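Q: Hi! First time asking for a complex rather than a single chain. Here are the components, and I think there are two in total. Is that enough to go on?
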Amino acid sequence: MKKNLRLLYDFFIIGLFTIGGGYAMIPLMRQTFVNTRKYLTEDEFLEMLAISQITPGPIAINMATFIGYREGGLLGSSLATLGVVLPSFIIILLISMFFTNLTQIPQVQKFFIGILTGVVGEITYITFDIFKKANKDIFYIALLLLSLVELFILKINPIYVILIGGALGIIFGKFFEDNNGASS
Amino acid sequence: MVLLLRLFIEFFKIGIVTFGGGQAMLPLLQHSFVTELHWITQERFLYFVSVAEVTPGPVALNMSTFIGYELSGVIGSAFATLGVVMPSFLVILAVAHFEKKFKENVIYKRFMLGVKPVIIALLINAIYLIVNRGFVGFIPYIMAIVSLAVFILYKKSPVLILLIAGVIGVFVLR
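A: Yes, that's all I need. Here is the structure of the assembled complex.
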């Protein structure tokens, strides 16, 4: 039970600090579950992230359900999901009821943009960190460049970019998986 | 009660077709609640979006709480939120349940081999999207670079760093 309540708490904090879209929570989740709690390895985390992106629903909910289920079964996943939902729910209810103009207050806007700058620093940091730890063979680099072209120039939906990467992995993976023994 | 069920169902549908960040669901929501059902005016909807994007939590959840409350109070927001969460919850439960079985599968492993570099690209894309929408003037860029430096040097407590960035923002941002 203690672990389940910790899931609720961890995901509550993560939900509270997700400002700027679903990706804003990735650094905090990685820090919490890979580094601090050690529930997941880096590879498991990245795989979960990919699955959360190509299955229906916001990444936040998917990750909460996923990690919750692994750590605490049905109860764990329910509490983790509740945790990540509650901050949104409470804050929006309060705004609807009492603070209709809260987000119009300049100080509040600046506070949120300030957090957003922190989020950008945080995502930049983990992007470097994940890249640094990855096994960067020619396949990895080529796929990274291809994905950047797909996202920035061709403006392809992220779901398809992941599916294309996965498909190329299935086709060409056998030539490279030996180098990636560490990843399994 | 009919309204509550309808809210649940509408948001359940949105939950099924929303992938990733949640921004993608905004046009769908607008179509359902503004154009088709006429439950929310266009002005109200745009106000909700503007708040949902700057408050904590996924946009999809903020919108479900907002619209649910507008139409049927706290119980309405609970039904709407439950609706938008349910598809994710059920699909991921199924995936997580069978995860052990396909984890050793060679096709799955190769698929994931191809997916990992894509995640780096998606993170870079996320940075671009946030900067593009939220950064005005040069001060936010400086703050982002400083916070990057802080994260490199001191990575123990991200929440504290984010809070400090918020407080500094109140004083230095225009």
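A: Chain A has a mean pLDDT of 89. Let me know if you'd like any chain examined more closely.
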